[in-house]
Amino acid sequence: MLVLTRKRDEVIQIGEDIVIKILKTGKGAIKIGIEAPGNVRVIRGELLETENSPEHLSAMNSDSVNQGLNAQCA
User: Taking the complete model, does pTM exceed 0.70, yes or no?
Assistant: First the structure.
């Protein structure tokens, strides 16, 4: 893992087309802005963990089954 120190309004460039800018720093938190192409998925870590949880995957699978059944009935 690369660890960088940045101040407000400084940026980090990833590849050719991803830019991370430090917008605000505060007590125990920072606010960042991310510029990336539309085809690059950007998601907070806690949401990614939720998406990969067994409960979420089970719900997604049942939604897919229900959508398939609805399509067959139409």
Answer: no
